[in-house]
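Dear colleague,

Thank you for sharing your sequence with our group. We've completed the structure prediction you requested, and as agreed, I am returning the results in plain text so they can be pasted directly into your records. Please verify that the sequence below matches your submission; if there's any discrepancy, let me know and we will rerun it promptly.
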Amino acid sequence: MNIKIKNNELFKSVLLISISIMFVISSTALLHANEAEFIIDRFKGITAFKFSLFDAVLYAAYLLAGPMAGYLSARTGKRKPFIVLGAAGTAVITLSMTLAPVYPILLILRFFQGVFCVTAWQSLMTMVLDLSDDSNRGRNMGIFGTFMALSMGLGPAAGGALAGISLFAPYYVSAVQCMVSVFITLFFIAEPPIKKENIKPGIADSIAFARNSPGLIIPALFNFVDRLHMSFIIFMIPLLLREFMQLGPEYRGMLLGINGSAYIILQYPMGRLSDKIGRYRLLVVGSMGYGLLLGCTGPAAAAGLTPLIILFFCLGIFSGITGPPNSALVGDLSSQEDNPLAMGFFNLFGNTGMVCGSLFGGFMLSFTGFTAAFMGAAAIELVTLALNMLIIRKLTAEKVNSLQKEDILV
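Please find the predicted structure tokens below.
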């Protein structure tokens, strides 16, 4: 009976954390559908590459601030203060962005929006790992991933609808959502029991930690390419539908939402499945299918909106297959006390990928068209998968050799 009560309390805690992350992540996801109107139609002289900087600086903030947030969280042994500060700060900055008089100031505000946002969502993600063990980590990350995917899938669709009301409506709603996350965290989420660790700060510390846990490079590389394609698609799809298919923000939000819906559906079952059959099979299948399909985006768009919708729903399926097992793999490879550092390293690669994704899209559109850009992104997926498979094989061989040596010594 006590075990059942404990499990119910754990489920409730994970659920509340997941709801909070949904509001934080969707606060930025709401803004994707009408970025073109918010920037290109608002400021003069915005090229495709300059436009890509709006997302790139956000992800650069994730890259730089993520490890620091992990360090401070580990050093203080606290999660809630960073969630509250991050969510409240995101709300203030988001409102300030509607008042930016010139594009450079908007980019500065966008950077600080990323700093606050990553502080909140990385602390929330780490809190889920704090509450997990080997028996439920995949399930918990599946629940967490479901709500995270809801925010990424439904956020752009809601943002597209809000953009039909006014240019700034998505930004006002975004700020409100952040404050809802603050309220949930303050009054309904308890601080998990964590040991206070005295460790060195920054990106270098996350890398140094990973040197002692070489297996972490595997989920980190998968996260790199997953996040790269996330930012690439978020950047490319609105432009593809606006410039190539002449469709408004409601259609752009709809397509991003359809892509996210398949991802949403698979989060929980894939988390549970990865607890039973392991992480690597799902990662390989999902990455292979995603890379092959992504290269077909150009022809699908030329064929019309319906083929494009089908393709992006299928891309969401393959993305959903890889998400939960990859997040759970981080917890498999680190202790509870080291979770903030492990997640810092994991998100270091993921956020690097997000910076590269939008910049890659802007760079490709400066010299080629949409078809070549999507084929290039597909090649990145498949090459990274091949590299990861080689690393898995190498680490497995080293582990076997080490065990054989121990047997000989015994």
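Summary note from our side: Residues 66 and 331 are 17 Å apart (CA to CA).

Kind regards,
the structure core
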